[in-house]
Amino acid sequence: MGSFSIWHWLVVLLVVVLVFGTKKLRNIGSDLGGAVKGFKEGMREGGQDAPANGTVAGAQQVQDQSQHPVARETIEVSAKEKS
């Protein structure tokens, strides 16, 4: 019982297709593919956005914040030691 044969996996695949249907499985596959593609693009863009000089990026960040002010709140929390 350590490993399953190809016939076991085919039966499992058949049951999954019968339960979910091919349309829903296709939608799940395309959603998953889109998420992976978006993640890869985000990682690629994130590497390009890293500035070589920190002062230029700091000036750009201040300028961006003045154009689009965002309310930032600090939440203070006190931690209690477990006894």
Automatic annotation (TrEMBL):
Keyword ATP-binding found: no
One GO cellular component term noted in the UniProt record for this chain: TAT protein transport complex
Subcellular location: Cell membrane
Keywords for the protein's UniProt record, in alphabetical order: Cell inner membrane, Cell membrane, Membrane, Protein transport, Translocation, Transmembrane, Transmembrane helix, Transport
Compositional bias annotation for Polar residues: 58-68
Basic and acidic residues composition bias: residue spans: 70-83
Annotated TM spans: 6-22
Superkingdom of origin: Bacteria
UniProt GO MF annotations: protein transmembrane transporter activity
UniProt topology in membrane: Single-pass membrane protein
Family: Belongs to the TatA/E family.
Function: Part of the twin-arginine translocation (Tat) system that transports large folded proteins containing a characteristic twin-arginine motif in their signal peptide across membranes. TatA could form the protein-conducting channel of the Tat system.
NCBIfam families listed in its UniProt record: PRK02958.1, tatAE
Subunit text: The Tat system comprises two distinct complexes: a TatABC complex, containing multiple copies of TatA, TatB and TatC subunits, and a separate TatA complex, containing only TatA subunits. Substrates initially bind to the TatABC complex, which probably triggers association of the separate TatA complex to form the active translocon.
The protein's name: Sec-independent protein translocase protein TatA
Organism: Vandammella animalimorsus
